[in-house]
Each structure stands twice: as C-alpha cells, then as structure tokens.
Amino acid sequence: MTERRLLPVLTAPPTTRHGSRSLMTCKFRCGNACDHREPNTSDNTHIGEILAAAITRRSILQGSAAGAATLVITGASGSLAAASATGSRSATDTTGPAALEFKPVRPNKRDKVTVPDGYRYDLIARWGDPVVAGAPAFDVYNQTPKAQSMQFGYNCDYVGLVKMPGERGKAIMAVNHEYTDEVLMFPDGYNDALIKRIAMQAHGMSVIEIHRGREPGSWRRTRPANTRYNRRITATTPMRLTGPAAGDRRLRTSADTTGRHVLGMLNNCAGGETPWGTILTGEENFNQYFDASGELDSRYTESYDRYGLTGEDSRGWSEVDERFDLTNEPHEPFRFGYIVEVDVLNPDSTPKKRTMLGRMKHEGATIEISDTGRVVAYMGDDERGDYIYKFVSRDDYDSSGTKAARGHNLHLLNRGTLYVARFNGDGTDDGLYDGSGVWIPLTSDTESFVSGFSVADVLIDTRLAADKVNPTRMDRPEDIQANPVTGKVYCALTNNSDRGVEYPTDEANPLASSLVREELRGPLVTASGNRNGYVMEITERHNDHAAESFRWVLFLVCGDPEDPRTYFGGFPKDRVSPISSPDNVAFDQVGNLWISTDGNALGSNDGLFAVPVEGSQRGHVRQFLTVPVGAETCGPLIKGETVFVAVQHPGEVDGATFDNPASTWPHTDPFPRPSVICSYRFDQ
Ligand code: FEO
Ligand code: CA
Ligand code: CA
C-alpha cells in the first residue's frame, strides 16, 4: 500500500450552496429544490447512527475482501475474463469497452468531450435534428412548437435501446428530454408565449431508429423517412393512467372527468428497458411546472408540501395552459410523478403511466426478473432525504415470445406489491459502512399495508404513506441497476448538503462533511454534508430480486482519493480516478459498473467512469470520458463495443446566454446543442 500525504484540510466552507451546479441548472432542472425546505419532514428513526470519524483506518486502507473473484483483469494487455460465481450468468468479452482497455482521462475543464486515446465518438442526435418524417430543418431563430414537436428535444437524459424484431445491425433508441433551459435555447427577442409552447414540445422523449455505422462500434441515426418507428412524445402527448389508482377522484380534472387520460409527461430523467421490449421513463421534478402561488385547496396542503408543490411555476407555463395553475386544477399535479411505459415497437401506442409503481420524483426504474419469474422494478426517489423503492409484480413474466405473451407482459406493471427500503447499520467496528435491510410493503394492488391509507392513497401520496413505516432517509437515491453477472444491485446516492446538518447521519448515509474543490487545481476545502456521494451495493437474500430482506455495503464513498473519507471498494486509492456525485449507473455485459456523474464537486467537468465490482480489481475506478463545460453526463449505456452517452446541458454556466454562450459544443453551431453520442475504439 502506498503511503500518501494528505492535503491540509481547511475549515472555510465553500461560497456556493449548490456545489458545482450552476444556478441555471438548479432553476430549470429541479426548480431550485436545494433552496427549498426538504419536503421530507418526517421524524424517522436513524438506526445505527454514527459519525463519519468512527470509520476505522482499517476499512479505508484494506476495504472489503468479500465476494467471489468473478472478474479478473489480467496481464499487460488488460484482457478480461469473466466467470460467474453462480455459473449461470457468465460472459466473456476481450474487446471493446468491457475489456476496460483504456488509459483513464484526467479531470479537466475543456469545452469538449474527451475520450481515451484510441477512442473516438460520433454524434447520433442533436437538439433540433429531425425525428419525425417531414420535420423541418432546425432554425433556432425561427423555431415553432410544431417544428420542435418533430425534432429531437432538449436536454437528453436517459438512453435506452430496444432490439428491432428480425433486424440485425439496427435498434430503436429511446432518449428522454428532461427539461429546457430557455436562457440557452432562445436568442433575445423571442415571444414569451411562443417560448413556453416550444419548451413544452422540447420535453418528453424521442424514439429514433439507429443502425450500425461503417466503423465497428459506431452507430448512426436512420433517416426519418426510412423508418416507421420514429416518434416524439412531449408535454402534451395523450397518455393513459393505468393501475389501481387510475380513475381515482384525485386524478380527475375538468378536462378529464374519468381520471384516466392525461396530456404529457414532465421532467423525465432516467429509465429502463423491459425484457418485453418497452421503455420505462421516470417523471422526476414535476412539481416545478405547477403554479402553487394562489389560494390552494386545503384538502391537499399536506400532499402539496410533501411533493414540493410550492410557489410559482419556474417556466410560467400556467400563463399559456391553465391546467398548470393549481387554483384552476387542484388535481392536475396528481397526474404526474409516475413511471411511464412506452411501447416503442408500436409507434401508435399510447404511453401508460403506471400508478402501481407509486408517485414520487422518480429518477427511473430498472427491471429484473425474480427467481420465480416475477418482475421487479428498482426505483429511487431523487430528493434529499427521500427513499428507495421496489415493485414486485403479482404475475410472472412470460418469456415465450408469442404475441399473447407480449400482451400479458404489457400488463405486468399494473398488479403487484410496492415496497420501501430500510437500511440497518451493523456498526463500523467491522471497518465497513454496511449492514442489513428490509423491504417494507406499502401496498399491493388490492390491499394497503399502511394504516389510514387506501391503496390509491399509497399510490398517489406514496411519500406520505412511506413516511408512516419508518424507511431510511437517503442522500438523493438516483439510478439503481442490477449486475447482470452477479445479480447484486447498485444504487447511486448523488449527494446531500443537508446530511448531518438538518438531520443526523446513519451508517448508510455516514458523512456529515466532505472535502471539495472549487477550482480544478484548487485546494481541497471542507464543506458540510455529503457532497461527493456514494454507490451502494445491495445483495438480496438468496440473490432473489423478489426477496424482502438484503445485505448492503457502501461500495464507493466518492471524492478525491486524497480525502481520507473516501473508499473505493478496498482498491488502493493512489490508483483510482477522483469521482464525485454519481448519478446514473449501468453495466456492461461482463459485469463492470459504469457510473456517470452530475455535479462534480472537485472542480472538474462531469464524466463517465468504469469500475470492476468483483475480484482483485474491485473498486478500481477509472475515468472513461469527460463532458464539456457546464454539461452533465447522462444516459450511459454500454452495448457490446459501444458506449452511448447523453451530453446534457452543455454550457449551462451562470451568466451564459444563447447570445453569450459558455460552450458551443458540439461545435456545429455558435450555441450549444445537447446531444447523444456513441464512443468506440478505432485503433484496433
Ligand atoms: Fe434528473 Fe435525479 O437526476
Ligand atoms: Ca459496518
Ligand atoms: Ca439523473
């Protein structure tokens, strides 16, 4: 083990409350969530409450030796062999990014996407590119809602791929458009109402067919005229509310007296692919689109507060569509905050909001199949101090591939049981932040398990119901993904500036202070709260995704390796890349974890990192790419030899405008264009 000198720890707090996020990102993406009181004011017990200082030096230096050696990177070539601990999920790959044959990219502040030597990237789709046949050419100076509704939307986030039946070398790509940044999207002088209507059409999802390019690993957008799959979904697309809460009184509005039909989806962040070829997408910070500044219906005060429905709408949409004004439509916000299932293989299908998976600020949902065939969805509620959830279906997944099977599978997310997680620490004498946990049932589709709450109450006011059963308040639970090789489940816990300030630490959320860096080469300084985030590893009982109990460990305590608080799965810290604010997680086919970041608190642009989770290289975090100035790394999707990434909000830096941009990436125009890229090796 290399001895290293720790940098002096200064006590001055950073000058910004928002970490490295620009004030624009805070306003437009999450409606300044950090400036508001945390919606979760419940007084849940913090079991195993500890202080950060209690972790022993042994854990920092030695880490975990647990787990079978399932992944081995060998020899100078770095070729990788994988053998599953269970023997049933093994895979091998000695080429492409899964082999982790790359020299890590260093932290930087460049206005470019930096990939490792020997790799390149191609643009697949930029904001404004045509999606639907007949889409007009992108003209940012003369944009219209109609044109935008046919073009690639703004601020791409989740990226999912679905196989096209009977086709090789082609795939259907689904991309979320989480939010708009009107300051960067529009030149001076645009009509205010027009901006709002264009912004509505720049939200939602793009579904685009892609095909393999000439280079191995490269992919191209298929011309809209040459595919029948392309479609745009926006903030005004007709959708269905399904599942046990559909039709509830609180879901009815003057425009929809049935409580089953809703226009649009909002702030769609991450998502997941289902084994039956649909895409799930999570409505996240939906609250910010509603004007709650008027006199509100007192029946819903507690619910509005718990979901952050306070103050004015950050984009002023209520001025052009009165359903966004709670004084007109007190029920409209109850129709948002769901997991939406999109059947991308059927371009005429109506997207379905799945009430059975609860209503919250859904980061996303990822699907696993349990040992007995039930469908399991893992979900994070991305808010400081909120919870991790799991859904287990009542019925089994039918893998027979028939038309009838698909029809059956398309209803699996309407019946089952919704759970919320409690994490119990086992103390830090063992040198690890770890322990056991339970999935606490909240409701099935027919029976509520929360006293005083009906089934519909639980599914509509999920946060309020969960508050009653004492789950663990987490540090912004975001993307959750299971390892396809080992079955272990990984959750990104991005950060939480309130941890240890507004409420105590616990073993699953152990840090009350962090070392951050405001400039790339500046000093590390102390900031209160958890600023660099964690990645948690969950092992379900008997490795069954439908289990009701589990073990957990913090696999990564992120930050600069010089920070003694950090932990990298036990790997020597002088050989890892610094990493901060993990947001999305993905696996390659041999079980290496890929992590994208949002809000680097170490002075660098955000990036994408790869790390083995088993064997001698467990915890060897290495940076694969960085995104441009002001951008966030989203999407990540590792398929074969290709790394797909959504570059979200390039140039979103305080003071920047369309006319005075901080970034011009991807450098095809004098202004930034959020885009999806694919990266691959080209020197083989
Ligand atoms: Fe949209 Fe949780 O990030
Ligand atoms: Ca422990
Ligand atoms: Ca995210």
Q: Main attributes?
A:
684 residues, mainly beta, 6-stranded mixed sheet, 9 helices, 35 strands, 8% helix, globular, binds MU-OXO-diiron, binds calcium ion
Summarize the structure in words.
- By secondary structure, the chain is mainly beta.
- It has one domain.
- It has nine helices and 35 strands.
- The strands form eight sheets. Strands 15, 16, 18, 19, 20, 22, 23, 26, 27 and 28 form a ten-stranded antiparallel beta sheet that branches. It has a six-stranded mixed beta sheet with strand order 10-9-14-13-12-11, with no helix packed on it.
- A hairpin with an 8-residue loop joins strand 26 and strand 27.
- The chain is globular and about 60 Å long.
- The relative contact order is 0.17.
- The model is unreliable at 1-17 and 45-93 (pLDDT under 50).
- The structure holds MU-OXO-diiron and calcium ion (2 copies).
- MU-OXO-diiron binds at residues 178, 269, 284, 363, 382, 478, 583.
Calculate the terminal CA-CA distance, rounded to whole Å.
34 Å
The 3D shape can be described as: globular
Number of domains: 1
Rg over CA atoms: 23 Å
The major β-sheet equals: 10 strands, antiparallel
Number of strands: 35
Helix content: under 10%
Mean pLDDT: 90
Derived structural class: mainly beta
Summarize the structure.
With 684 residues, this protein is mainly beta.
Topology record:
Layout: H1 23-30, H2 57-61, E1 71-74, E2 79-82, E3 119-126, H3 145-148, E4 156-163, E5 170-177, H4 182-185, H5 192-202, E6 204-212, E7 219-221, E8 231-233, E9 238-242, E10 261-263, E11 268-273, E12 279-283, H6 301-306, E13 339-342, E14 352-354, E15 366-369, E16 374-380, E17 384-386, E18 388-396, H7 403-409, E19 416-425, E20 434-444, H8 455-460, H9 462-467, E21 474-475, E22 477-482, E23 489-493, E24 513-516, E25 525-528, E26 534-540, E27 549-557, E28 567-568, E29 582-587, E30 593-597, E31 607-611, E32 622-626, E33 632-639, E34 642-648, E35 675-681
Residues 425-428, 430, 432-435 line the site of one calcium ion.
